[in-house]
Amino acid sequence: MRRITFLPGVVKTFDAVPNTDFRGNLATRLPHGTALNTLKVEAAAALTARVVAFNARGPSAPSATMTATPSMQLPSPPTLVHATSIGRAGIEVAVSPPVEDGGAKVDAVRVEMSATPGFETSSAHSIRVVHEVQAVTVDFRNSVITRSGSFTLSWGARTSPAIDWNADAADVQEAVSALVPATSAGVSTHSGALPSTQVEVEREALRHGYEWRVTFLHREGNFSPLIPDPSLLAGDNPTLLVAEVIAGVADVFQIGRAHV
Asked: Which helix (DSSP H) or strand (DSSP E) does residue 172 occupy?
């Protein structure tokens, strides 16, 4: 029995071309000249399928139709929601995960606030699963004196090789990727995609130096900062700083407070 898998979110369809050979791998091979289309469906939508067979004379009549619903559904509502007064004019909302996640990790929550029970007017605050972003900055007081040298970055028990003071994004990406524990490689993100690299780096020129934005892709979470060592930089008052740009979030229901 041949099994053909349609991934959730997009169903690929085709317009059959008569008198063409459609024998072979049905999952990857279509008749020459076939027009591909896409049908976007909601994750919980029921899909109806039918199959047409081809030979040298052309297509058969369609088979009987069958209907199935993908297992991923909408999550159930959050549970154990409590509101507590804070100070003279504020409240704190506590929430626990839904009983049913719908078959996929719950990666966002939205807290809505209103002065009326019917929520005729309201404000909202969202918390999402996000990747950690840190900025590594090399700068000098001026560029008149020759700028040279290198620096290193450490994370956990690992230290990078020397990184040139003006390294391009690819070099910093390679250096920081080597600091990420190998056991974390290939971990699925909340989107289900497998990251092609441990980190992603973008470089921006400053007045007398550079900034590298490092996004940690191997998994979500709030990580400790990279530890900089500027001892091998040379020039007029060189500085090497690391700052958190976006605090990563791995679990929207983790213990902690989000200030609005």
From this structure: helix 169-177
What local confidence, expressed as pLDDT, does residue 116 receive? 85
The model's pLDDT over 85-113, given as tens digits with 9 standing for 90+, comes to 877 767 778 888 888 888 788 888 888 88
Four-CA torsion 78, 127, 224, 240, nearest 10 degrees: 180
What is the C-alpha to C-alpha distance for residues 5 and 159, in angstroms, rounded to an integer?
A: 44
Q: Which two tokens mark 5?
A: 């898998």
The model's confidence at residue 250, banded by pLDDT at 50, 70 and 90, is confident
Say how far apart CA 44 and CA 34 lie, in whole Å: 29
Beta partners for 11? 39
CA pair distance 214, 200, nearest whole angstrom: 6
Q: How far apart are CA 106 and CA 126, in angstroms?
A: 13
Q: Cα(207)–Cα(227) distance, rounded to whole angstroms?
A: 23
Q: How far is CA 223 from the centre of its chain?
A: 16
Q: Give me the residue spans of the domains in the chain.
A: 10-68, 79-128, 133-246
Question: Could you tell me which residues are beta bridge partners of residue 69?
Answer: none
Report residue 171 as tokens: 């070099």
- Euclidean distance between the first and final Cα of the chain, in Å? 56
CA distance 182 to 44: 36
The DSSP annotation for 191-236 comes to TSPPPSSSEEEEEEE-SSSEEEEEEE-SS-S-PPPPEEE-TTEESS
Please state, as a whole number, how many other Cβ atoms lie within 10 Å of the Cβ of residue 246: 15
Which tokens belong to 56? 């040298």
Name the DSSP class of 189. Answer: -
pTM of the model: 0.61
